[in-house]
Amino acid sequence: MRFLTQRKRFDDLSEQEILALAISSGEDDAQIYRGYAERLRSDYPGTAAVFEGMAQEEDVHRQRLIDLHQTRFGATIPLIRREHVAGFYARRPVWLQEALTLAQVRTEATAMEKQAERFYLAAAARTTDAETRKLLGNLAAAEAGHQDAADSLEQAHLDQDTRDREDGTERRQFILTWVQPGLAGLMDGSVSTLAPIFATAFATQDTWTTFLVGVAASVGAGISMGFTEAASDDGELSGRGSPLKRGLASGIMTTLGGLGHALPYLIPDFWTATVVAVAVVFVELWAIAWIQNKYMETPFFRAAMQVVLGGALVLAAGILIGSG
């Protein structure tokens, strides 16, 4: 059962090991903050300055801990990290940190400090050794001080106007990277597949055949739209963001737009399936109008008239072609 004991319990750590763990944890947190600062610097300089300041605060506390270790235990610091201790708080892997939004990054930083403080306070309450208790209490106080320092840095570098500008920048980037390609895909999938699906339905009155045509049209359109979006712009000059993200948004929404009115043809009865499919079409068209109004600032009535009228014309064309 040796593999079960590879992680040491926090209660079993010596005072030197606790100090070494605090030092390595401070190093990791400073690196995380600097990573946030580097990632955000070009688009969100105010928030980047806050994280740079927080990294510097971590450096100061880490140096004090190193000085304390040298005084008590010498210059050789044991190699012990968070992952070596059972129950110790963990940090997100770097590939998950990259996916965080601006608001999530700010929330994550606050949680990092509070999590560390709670851990040290709980650890201090569980120990009976006076020196260890004092050390853990000091570490908890240091983490609380980090939170106060972060608040001060935020007030210095991130006033309300700066925060509003950065939030606006993030919203625009979200729209360019996700909403616009997704909306284009949804419109294409919902509208362009209407004619082939309903033409097939009325020409054959076979729900299974109609379903297969609908799935083929939807998946094919999704693949085409996704590749076209990803290949049309690498995002470097336009600032529209990752081509992979845009391609996924466009391709997935195109496929979903077509599948919405293809799936009802799994219903065996032709007229029941058709009535449900038509109802789904109008829900899709109104959803498109709502998205245009919410994110693209298009007046809702105008968006609804454009989308619903266009969709109705394509739907009618498919029915007429299939009936002929």
Write a structural description.
This protein is an all-alpha fold. The chain has 2 domains: 2-158, Ferritin, core subunit, four-helix bundle (Ferritin), CATH 1.20.1260; 165-323, no CATH class. 78% of the residues lie in helices and 1% in strands. The chain contains 11 helices and 2 strands, in the order βααβααααααααα. It has helices at residues 15-40, 45-73, 94-97, 102-126, 130-157, 160-192, 194-204, 207-232, 243-262, 270-295, 300-323; strands at 8-9, 85-86. A two-stranded parallel sheet has the order 1-2. The protein is elongated, with a radius of gyration of 29 Å. The N and C termini lie far apart (75 Å).
Tag the structure with descriptive keywords:
mainly alpha; 324 residues; 78% helix; two-stranded parallel sheet; single chain; elongated; 2 strands; Ferritin; 2 domains
Secondary structure elements and pairings:
Elements: E1 8-9, H1 15-40, H2 45-73, E2 85-86, H3 94-97, H4 102-126, H5 130-157, H6 160-192, H7 194-204, H8 207-232, H9 243-262, H10 270-295, H11 300-323
Parallel strand pairs: 1-2
Helix pairs in contact: 1-2, 1-4, 1-5, 2-5, 4-5, 6-8, 6-9, 6-10, 6-11, 7-8, 7-11, 8-9, 9-10, 10-11
